[in-house]
Every structure is written in C-alpha cells, then in structure tokens.
TrEMBL record:
A Pfam family: DUF4283
PANTHER family: DUF4283 DOMAIN-CONTAINING PROTEIN, GLYCINE-RICH CELL WALL STRUCTURAL PROTEIN 1.8-LIKE
Protein name (record): Uncharacterized protein LOC107458009
InterPro entries, alphabetized: At4g02000-like, DUF4283
Residue spans of biased composition, Gly residues class: 325-340
Source species of the chain: Arachis duranensis
C-alpha cells in the first residue's frame, strides 16, 4: 500500500485547526443571529438571463452542511473516486465513516461524521497517496473547481550530506525557512538517529521556482524533494512541461513559432524554438541562412537537475495489484543519484 502522510494546500495543521475553531464559532453565532428571517430564494430575469437572489437566511441554510468539510486534490496525478474513497477511509476513517464527492477537475470534497477524524486529518499530515501529495483546504463558499489552483503544498525535503553538528532544530528550521516555511522536523532527524540526510516538512510556494541548493560558509549543499513530480528543470517550477512554461513567451517570426525566455526578451541571445522550427528547416534548407547568428538550444538551468527528485525504490517490492497504499511518513525512497 502506498498512502503516506504528507500535505495541505496553504496552511500548517495548527493553522488549519485554528481556522476550524473560528469557523465553528462563526457558524454558532450565525445560527443565533438568524432570528425570525425566513429563508427565501427569488428569481428575476435580467437581460434574458434568469438570476437567482438568495437572502442571508437561505444562504446560511444552503452552506451549513459544508462548513466542516475538506476539499482535496492529488497533486500531479489523477485518481478515481472509488480509489480515493478506499485510501481516505484507510487514512482518516478511524472513528466513523467519511463521504467523498467528486467536484470535477480532480477536486473532491470530504465530509466527516466524526470531529476526531477531521482533527486527525488536519494535524497528522502532511499526506501522500501513490507517492503524490494530497492538497487539503477547507471548503469555501462558491468554490469553483474549474478555476481553483494549488499554490502551496506541504512537502518533505531531504538535506543530504549535511554535517551532524547542523542537526540542531533551530539550524534546521532556518534552512527550511529558506526553502519554504518549516512546519516540522522528522523525528529521526530530531533524534539524530538517521545520518544519511536531514528530513524536514516545509510548505512550498508552487508559484515560485524551487530552491535546489544552499550554502554554509560558502560550501554548497543540495536539496532533494520527496513526492514532487513534473518539474521543468529550465525554470524550477512544479506542475508544467516545456510547452506551457510560464517563463517563456510564444512569438511568431516569419511564420515560425519561437518560444523565447524572459531573459531573451531582455536581450540575452538564447532562443528556444518549438518543433515547428525543425519542420520548417527540413522543408527549407535556406532557413539556416535567415537564422544566422541565432542559437537554437534546449535551455537548461544547471541549478535544477533530476537529482532534486527523490525516487521510490522498487527493490524487494512485489508488483502486486492493489499494493498502492502505505501509512506513515516514510516509504522506501531514494535520491535520483541512487543514494538514500
């Protein structure tokens, strides 16, 4: 089984718990303030469009069942509703059952019938399923799965090669805060019982390039990421490929599609072209003369390389169908360089 503790979308477990308490208090006050207002939904036609108007009492009535629910999405991998239900029940359904509803666009809403189970889901993460992080957020009014994005995620990182004297909590948190926002230190690391690498849980900003290296007194150290997939190594961002990298700009020049980096727009002579360029060059040998002085390259930033990604080891594991879920914060993983 391959379900692993790991993640939420924007805040730590403690902050989610505080948010949960605030939401419950707010909901209680709303119920007390309703008074004698009668729920009412009216319909009017405005410029050939039927518009629904919902008064405050009716809106509270509609939203009440969803305040203690979570919206989840598996980062970088699709999963069926039935498969997700099985894994979430194994992870979170300790005291009572849970209900999972497919919202579309790979977002799901999870309804808990036990406050203890909800608290467990909020505090015992981060979570992973099939070696992919599970993002978690509270349900929000008017949530639109077609427009929602995942901007932050809690993830485990490894600091290989770090000298043992730096396995001190304050030092590790300072390193983690450079990479993201430190949420917690792995128990084995805190106890100094695992010396191959230090392990931290940090909140990552997925809208910014990942931090791949840091230095102590000028000596460089690498950062490895567990459960992170689909990194475009030219820009260090998560969740896209070269064809739709936000750091490049698609331009048309003499009928040729050219993907230009932001640096090129500033005058740096590095141009990355799509396969359209190759097709045009093959059909027109003279094209090379027109492009004289331009360098067509596969842009790659040396700061971002495959060694950043921790890969799961399949050594000694049987490929049994259904063996896709494990508990805990570990799992057998190794760095892309084979160590770990």
């Amino acid at each position: 089984m391959d379900t692993e503790k790991v993640s939420h979308i924007s805040t730590s477990g403690k902050e989610l718990m505080e948010e949960d308490e605030d939401r419950r208090n707010s909901r209680k006050s709303e119920v007390n303030m309703e008074g004698s207002q009668i729920p009412e939904i009216t319909v009017e036609k405005i410029e050939r469009i039927f518009n629904f108007r919902i008064n405050e009492a009716a809106m509270k009535e509609l939203r009440y069942p969803w305040w203690d629910t979570l919206i989840v999405k598996l980062l970088g991998r699709r999963i069926s509703l039935l498969a997700l239900i099985r894994r979430l029940e194994a992870m979170w359904g300790k005291m009572d059952s849970i209900k999972v509803i497919d919202l579309g666009n790979d977002f799901f809403i999870v309804k808990f019938y036990s406050q203890e189970d909800l608290d467990f889901a909020l505090t015992e993460g981060p979570w992973k399923i099939l070696n992919h992080y599970l993002s978690i957020r509270f349900w929000q009014p008017d949530f639109n799965p077609l427009e929602a994005t995942i901007d932050k995620i809690a993830a485990w990182i490894r600091l290989p090669g770090l000298a043992i004297e730096y396995y001190e909590e304050n030092m590790l948190k300072k390193i983690g805060d450079v990479i993201g926002c430190t949420l917690k230190v792995d128990t084995n690391t805190a106890d100094k019982s695992r010396e191959k690498f230090a392990r931290l849980c940090v909140e990552l900003d997925l809208t910014a390039p990942l931090i791949s290296q840091y230095a102590i007194h000028g000596v460089k150290y690498k950062v490895e990421y567990e459960g992170i997939h689909n990194i475009y190594f030219s820009c260090g961002l998560v969740g896209h490929e070269k064809s739709n990298c936000p750091k490049t700009i698609l331009e048309i020049s003499e009928g040729i599609e050219v993907r230009v980096t932001e640096k090129e727009k500033e005058g740096v002579e590095k141009i990355e072209k799509t396969t359209t360029v190759d097709r045009v060059r093959e059909s027109n040998p003279d094209i090379s003369k027109k492009e004289k002085g331009k360098q067509v390259i596969e842009e790659r930033n040396e700061a971002y390389e495959p060694w950043m990604l921790v890969q799961r080891s399949t050594h000694g594991r049987k490929g049994t169908k259904g063996d896709n879920t494990t508990g805990g914060s570990g799992g057998i993983e190794k760095g892309a360089n084979g160590k770990g």
